[in-house]
């Protein structure tokens, strides 16, 4: 039976990369039915009174699954981040950002294979800010035992089920002794006595080590802000945000998304790279393979991954990673190799 998946095209290049990914999934025989819902500035343009309509949230809750394009977030004002609101509204507490080297995409490093696991609901991204007096603004960093424990348990389960060798916590508990200290206490409690190697790094030293030799790391466990920054840094090791996927997991819902921006400056120019969203769709299929339907979804995911790996090896690249292909031509090249 076909599985219904909510499709959120988003803003800017979002509809283009979503369209490309749907083409590949259909060509690969993915057994999915799409239910489209808006979010971002496109929702306002469609007449909604908010950038994240309740009907969109309700659809994801009903089907438990969504594939999402990038949404625009204003800088220094305007409406709040759609991504943050979606994660909070659906309690998508765990972000997973796999980062691996791709043959055909030239970078400074080879054989990078990292996963960033990020707490998605607390920290400075709680959005609690106040102007204390004129010229003085405070931001409140939130950490709770419940959230710190569950993200540590998620990271442990992820490492065990996928055969990962080590989990490293990035923190700044030498300065933020209470909030980051709580994060460390909970991680130590969860990993104590398990078979997964556990270590801790102060985040500034950890970032230096990442760009010196990323091979010393395996799974990185981070609170919200650190995970956001570190996942982008790791993406830079393998070619950028255009070649790295993302997923957000809750107890009953999962949303898979490209983590790059909406790039309105190139929207409509056939210049966007759909690979990050396609890789996220492969994660979606593998997620379905683990939880419902089994082998057909995993087999479809493997066909797509083999096809885009072969495309990259052949030198068929988009402009952001040194090639010359546009969105449609790159998509056609992948479909030809399915």
The H-level CATH homologous superfamily of the largest domain, spelled out, is Isopropylmalate Dehydrogenase
Euclidean distance between termini CA atoms: 23 Å
Mean pLDDT: 94
CATH overall fold name of the largest domain: Isopropylmalate Dehydrogenase
Shape: globular
Number of strands: 12
Number of domains: 2
By DSSP (H or I, 4+ residues per run), the number of helices equals 11
CATH architecture type of the largest domain: 3-Layer(aba) Sandwich
Give the fraction of residues assigned to helices.
40-55%
What is the highest CATH level, the class of the largest domain? Alpha Beta
Order of helices and strands: EHEHHEHEEEEHEHEHEHEEHHH
How can the largest sheet be summarized?
10 strands, mixed
* Main β-sheet, spatial strand arrangement: 2-1-3-12-11-4-5-10-8-9
Describe the fold and architecture.
There is one protein chain. The protein has helices spanning 14-28, 41-45, 54-63, 82-89, 145-161, 179-191, 203-212, 224-238, 275-291, 295-313, 327-336, and strands spanning 3-8, 32-36, 65-68, 94-100, 113-119, 123-133, 136-142, 166-171, 197-202, 219-222, 245-249, 254-258. It is built from eleven helices and twelve strands. The model has no long low-confidence stretch (mean pLDDT 94). The chain is of the alpha/beta class and 338 residues long. It is 41% helix and 22% strand. The protein has two domains: 1-95 and 242-338, Isopropylmalate Dehydrogenase; 108-238, Isopropylmalate Dehydrogenase (3-Layer(aba) Sandwich), CATH 3.40.718.10.
